[in-house]
Each structure stands twice: as structure tokens, then as C-alpha cells.
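Why does residue order matter? Because the sequence determines the fold. Keep that principle in mind as you read this record.
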Amino acid sequence: MLKNICVLVLAFVLFACEEAADLSNSQSYVKDGVSFKLPGNWKVVEDITEEGFRYISIESSGDAVAGVSLFHNGVRIELEDYIDLIIENFNAELPVGSRNRGEVFEFTPDYKENVAKAIRNQFAITLASVEVPHTSDFYEMRTNSDFAIIFTQVSDEDKELIQKGFDQIINSFEIE
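Structure:
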């Protein structure tokens, strides 16, 4: 499962161009007890469930990605362990180039009511001696049922264009 997540993230990080999140044409995603809003020019590309785990993959029109990981039946994973798994598996899935670990630190997001804990990973992907700085944010969400983590990633160059789209997903996220 994490291999699939890393491959998706990698493909979009390396080959796409970004445009601003279209908040004026927001769309709602509602399926199997999970709902959130996303920018009009973004799409949910995958919603899969395997062995008590559900992953919803979201893509912007460029290289930004977000993902919702849901752990069912009381299963939990520490946010730091989840981040370590993403970092470790990312390089294993890179066909060329590399990703450094970068800095990993807890931060306080502007929106706090839906988020129990937030950790940022600032790193770089290097391909053909070109280093591209990126930021991944990981949010442990407050829910009344399943354990949920929302993951966002974008190149630092494009972060300003899409951050409000990430915020929209996080602020509107609900589980029935």
C-alpha cells in the first residue's frame, strides 16, 4: 500500500506543472462515510480499501498531492511512524534520483479545531544534479471513529499556489 502511495507522489512531483487551487468552484467528495471539499481543478484519483485500511488519493492539476489514510477497527499508528514509513519507502520507489530525509518537526497549523497533531517534513528530491525543495505536512485528525491522517506534498516553489486547497480539504474533512 505505501509503495503505491510513494509511486503516485513521485510521478506527480517530478513531471507536472502547478496552477492555483480553484476555490471558487469547489467540489464535494462524499463516499462511505468520509466527506471533504476540494478545489474545482483537483480530483480524487483513487479510493481503495485493503485489510482495515483505506487510502484516498487526491491530485491537483499539477504536482501537488494529498492523501487521506483511514485506519479502521481501532487500529492506530503513531504519526511519527507513519512519516518514517513514507520517507523510507519513497526512495525505494524512485526509478531515478533520490530524496533526502530533510527536517522533520512538529508545527501548529493556522486551523486547529480539526487537527490533533501536525508534523512537517521539509526535504529535497534530487534528479540529474537538480535539487527541488519540497514540503510534506502530516495531520493527525480529530475524529469520533476511525483513526485518520491527512498527508499533503508540494514543491516549495508551488506551495503558495495550492496551500489554500490543502487547507480546504483539512478544514472540511469529516467522518460519519
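The radius of gyration is 15 Å.
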